[in-house]
Structures are given as structure tokens and as C-alpha cells.
Amino acid sequence: xxxxxxLGHAGFGVEHRGQRVLIDPFFYPAFLASWFPxxxxxxxxxxxIGGRWDYLYISHTHEDHFDRKVLAALDKNVQVLCPNYRSRxxxxxxxxxxxxxxxxxxxxxxxxxxxxxRATIYLDTGHKEDSALLLExxxxxxxxxxxxxxxxxxxxxxxxxxxxxxxxxxxxxNCYDYPPEIMRDKVARVRRDLFQTLLKKCEVTKATAYLxxxxxxxxxxxxxxxxxxxxxxxxPVWHDVRDSFRRALPKVKVxxxxxxxxxxxxxxxxxxxxxxxxRPTKNLSEYSxxxxxxxxxxxxxxxxxxxxxxxxxxFATLQKRNQHVLRDFSKxxxxxxxxxxxxxxxxxxxxxxxxxxxxxYDPQYSVLMPAPALRAILEGSxxxxxxxxxxxxxxQRHPDVFDSRLMGLLRYGNEPAQTRQMAxxxxxxxxxxxxxxxxxRFCPHAGEDLTYATICNGVIECPRHHWxxxxxxxxxxxxxxxxxxxxxxxxxxxxxxxxxxxxxxR
Length: 506
Fold this sequence. Notes:
disordered C terminus; 26% helix; 26% strand; 3 domains; Nonspecific Lipid-transfer Protein, Chain A; eight-stranded mixed beta sheet; Metallo-beta-lactamase, Chain A
């Protein structure tokens, strides 16, 4: 009978008919030594590294899924199921670690792993490179979405067990410097949106059972300990969500697992076999002390000075590779690290413009960060996406509106294939008709299919990140600064004639 072992966070070990599949093992700290699995799952590490695996699936390159230290220790002869991304970044990283048996699989592409065992990859088809895995085991359908947002219109249905994110996996809004009352409102809104997105995933996939997974992390560095507050951040634990989920979807069975627990599948039934051994402490203070050497390593790195020419060179290269997203764009960015301040002009007016010290322009975005984080970005050992997710950066923006092109340049600019796709999404010409409106089909922010958008009281709301637009003008009224192409659909000629006749006969 099939069984699924929960490894913590978004990690699973699946076995069916003697074939074993390892999914997203995460044990060591991620994102500049800031994220740790919660609860501690290191007691399972030896079993994972020393185990026999026939297949390995890594959903994407984020370090809480792509744990380089764990992957380096695995048998390199394992067959890798690799999402076939535009950038090929995941495949390159896997090959750099020594994996050679790599099977690239595109969106909705399947592979027969064994008799009665079939795997299908589902991609986030927008510019963000993420994926989900459907495993069919003699008809039983286990769909691991981790923190992927495949467009709702592309999701599989009749899912027996859905594993998906319920907690936040981003930096907004907690990395921004908001007054307490504004932060409370923004946190509440993000948590509500995350919950609504989860419910939609369950409804669209017609999931019989749901397995909470893919977070949240915990922060063991004392500098970041305030992010462990489950009430004031976007990182709730399942206990905070459980009752609301059961009220909203009472027919969906919830399968709650701790690291080391096993689910055995017998027909449509799911039996949970709790881990029989001793578990590590759940006390975060003790956990932090246990991992002191790991989070302290971030602070103990080399302290090389950061020069203005290094910053100028970095941003000149970044912009040169991403001209396709910088037309009609200009932005002033302030960077501050350990008492040093630089102003960077981005976009068509940039001309490698970097000023050291007091800036003559009011910055539209300001980023305050530890020098080791900025140094890691300039040297290429980490990216802006990873640095932002570390929660070690503090951000301010004026006006307080998400700038898709700036953040896309920073987060994805090292992979121009992603920013080119982002530019295509902004200019997408494909349309749909809904509720008397003709509008672009895919959200200009992240490419979600707006077939599932909510249209109510003159407002169009994206079902993924819940951006909102004025249904008459297409102006973005919540979320960011990208407009939506929308127009009223003229009534067909026959309908206008019938309407005119009806009025005449009154």
C-alpha cells in the first residue's frame, strides 16, 4: 500500500510498489541563515541522506526547497524529476552538484515511474518559476502544491490528498517600516488573502483531504526573533487557521502531520502512523542555542568594504541584461548598509548613476540592510529574492505602491528569461469576456488566469494575490501600479433590437 512520510516544511518521502520518491528535503538554514524548519526535523536527516531513493523532485530554487547541503550529500545516481523552466536555472544548479540523470518535464507533462506510479509536473506558468507535483498511485491522487501558484484554470481535479501552503512565504508586509496600526491592517489583509487562496485551491482541485505544509519557518537568530510572533506576522501556524478552514470546508478532511509521521493509503482511507521515536524540543530558545553556529555564521563572515564602483558595476550589468523591462522607467533607489549610504538611479535615466553619501534625490525605494547581505548580493552568492526572504532587509517606499518592474528587476533580473516573460505578461493581448466586460486574460502582476477573478461592485479582483482594478477604467486600486486592459462589451445587435422592441411595446 502507498505511504507518505512527512519530512517537515514542504518535504515528503513517498513510496509505492517499492519505488521511492524524495520531495523538497529542507533541513539546513535558508536565506542568509535566517529560515529554519519548524519544528526541528534534523532527527530525520540521516534517514533521508542514507536512504535509497529512486526519484528526486525539487520544486524550485528557493533554498527552503533547494537545500544545497542536503542535495550535495545525496546519491547522484538518483533520477531527478526537474521542472523545465524557461531559465533552466534549476537544472543548471542540479548539474553543478553532480546530478546527471535529469528528466526535464514541462507543464502538465507526465512520466511513468513504475507500473501504477505516474508523475505529472504543473508549473506556475507566469514569470515566477515554481512547480507542483501530482503523483498517481494506482488511482490515488496526491497533489503536492507546496507554495506554487499554478493558475487555477490549469489545476488538476479529483484530488484525494492536497498538500499546499497555508502560511506566508514572502517578505511583504513585515519587511516594510510601517507604523504599528498600518502594519496590523496589512498583515490581516495578507493573511486573509492567503486563506482565501487556499480555499480556492481546495475547491478547484475538488480535494477530498488537505495536508497543511510548506511552512511556516522559524527564525533562530535573535536579531530576527520578532518574526516568530504568529499574531503580528504573515507566518501563522496551523493552529491559528484550523477552525476557520473547517468552518469554510467542513467536508474536506484535514490530515495534520508532524515531521516523521507517516500516512498509509488504503483505498480512499488515510491512516496516520505517528513517529515512534523521541522528537526534538519545540522550545525556540533551546532550538536557537542548538543551531547557534549556523545562524551566527552570517554575522561572522569576512568584513570586506563595499565600494561605490562595486554597486555601480552590479546595477549597470543588471540593467544591461534587462532592457526589455526598463523602457519608460526610472526609479531612485537608496541603499544603506552599516552607516554607508548610496543612491542608485535605475531605468532610462540611470547612466550608471551612483552617489556615495547624502543623496540629492528623494528615493522612491529605500533598503536598509546588514553589510554582509549587500556584499552577498554584489558578489552573486545570493540574490535579491533570497535576501528579501531572509527578513534581514528593511524597506520603505514612497508612494506606498508595489512597483512590479523594480521588484521584477531585482528579484528575477539575474535570469532574463524570467523578466522577458514578465514583460510579455504586462503586454498580453489575450482576452476573456466576463460579466459584460472584455479584459485581458492574465493578471499583469503574476500571470494568474483572470477567468476565476471576482467581479463585484465595479471591482475586478485577482484570485491569486488579490490585486484589484476599477472595472470601468482598469486602474489598479489595490496591490500595485499596473493597469488592466478592460472595456465594456457591446450588446449583440439582436439583443439591442429586442431591447428596443420591448421598450416600444410598454
